[in-house]
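Appendix B, Record 12. Input sequence as logged:
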Amino acid sequence: MSLSGTIAAVTDRIRERSKKSREIYLDRITRAARNRPRRSFFACANQAHSFAACAPLDKERLEEDVVGNIGIITAYNDMLSAHQPFEAFPEIIRAAAREAGGVAEVASGVPAMCDGITQGYTGMELSLFSRDVIAMAAAVGLSHDVFDAALYLGICDKIVPGLVIAALTFGHIPAIFVPSGPMTTGQGNDKKAEIRQLYAEGKVDRKTLLQSEATSYHGPGTCTFYGTANSNQMMMEMMGLHMPGAAFINPNTPLRDALTREATKRALEITALGNEYTPVGAMIDEKSFVNAIVGLNATGGSTNHTIHLIAMAHAAGIDLTWGDIAEISSVVPLIARVYPNGLADVNYFHAAGGMGFVIKQLIEAGLVHEDVRTVVGEGLDAYATEPKLGSDGQVVREPAPEKSGDEKVLTGWRKPFQADGGIRVLSGNMGAAIIKVSAVKPERWLIEAPALVFNDQLELQDAFKAGKLDGKDFVAVVRYQGPKANGMPELHKLTTVLGVLQDRGQKIALVTDGRMSGASGKIPAAIHVTPEALDNGPIARLKDGDMIRLDANDGTLTILVDEQEFNNRQIEHPDLSAHEFGTGRELFRVFREFVGRADQGASVVVGPLRQ
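Logged structural output:
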């Protein structure tokens, strides 16, 4: 089928809007690629430092300076389940590189924090900023300028977007992203959510809750719900930055290791030393980002990417907006139901057909650019496949299935679960916001109710425990949660509290200048409200009792208060000094001062392309 007119028009608009900034970016990486590999031009002392600790064979090869050298950027740490498997990857990569006649070295480690651990606590106020720290940490490793390609070992929420920003900043270097994969399936996500809600209501004890959580999160790999981490892996497939089908293979399996070896060998093939030079900054273009947005909507992915995608695109000189994301969403059907948009986890999703089936359906429907460059060559159709382990231990690929293995989890584009992807932009006299409705029942897409205003998520939780929220319809406004105020933490813990009230029959919504996540579910939530409260956005003028209308059907978020009276209200910002220190927050003062708006990527290191 020919390409959708809307997809083509949005792509053309992005390309035209980005023309000047993209030309500047491409010129910059073209100049950076000259005289490669750079180590050829180092003084001898500099060069000797670069391979002093290498194994004898690697040192011999680098001294001769005729082989490809891969820089490994790793987010390994022991504490986080998704990143623990990366401990073994460098040795696998080094061995595969030697076998292929090249060299691989760990160039740098980058931090990896877990929103699941910091959720609801002060550490979460570093979470969004960690993305930019990751980009900077990767840049430190690559700044030695001795690498011909890079392998990026990262998987979770801010790690992959940060690594993409780094990869595009060093856009003259070929890049392949190497995931660790999801943990095996534990307790079902629906049961986990049920126990959380029972605990919030005081119906089960803490021991029961902890046992439930430990049964859900039980081993190496990413969490198995479809949150930001697994949305990252979907996007890397859609953008052609993975080896095809790498996203959802479990850790510590022969196929996972074979895919890692394959990525290593492919990275050496696409350096400037060979005939298939594929600099990532030229490979990733407007079409690549449109494909990522299509995949995000088709699978019901994380709202965090409405921020990350903009920052990632800006790193490549591509001017992406919330309007582009919303317009694409309007024509992309939802074809996957993975928790929290359904009961299945990502392992079941993969078994039912996974990314190969999704990409095959999107190509067939004319909803993606098939003619894109990827790390394996031309064309997205290479990703409409399923990887298997061959008898010789190498990766072999079969065509993606024609039919879903379970149509309650994956369906074809002709009979979607929902006509659009469910990510929408809300606008009105409160500013702009994002809402994800793919997990929200349609009868809850419209709510008009009085505001209950909180300046901290703990205030709302305390009000719930005190019974002050019982028996009434309301819109919970949780403000001073934007990037400038306190780093824009996720407020995912509020989902359980508000879910209890909604299940009792109350009409509830959330409006916030903070974030939720890919794990957000059934509560209508207008998030990322911009301008934020600390920027004197309208949300800062709200008072208890103000009527708010949230209508996801027509994309509006409106304060139903006399305009003159509302605008005449004085803004008195609360004391936010408690957010300025503790848990390392004092080190991030400069981030809070200089961070950009949510709709411009909420970044310190990547500025908006339009002033």
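Residues 5-184+219-399 form one domain.
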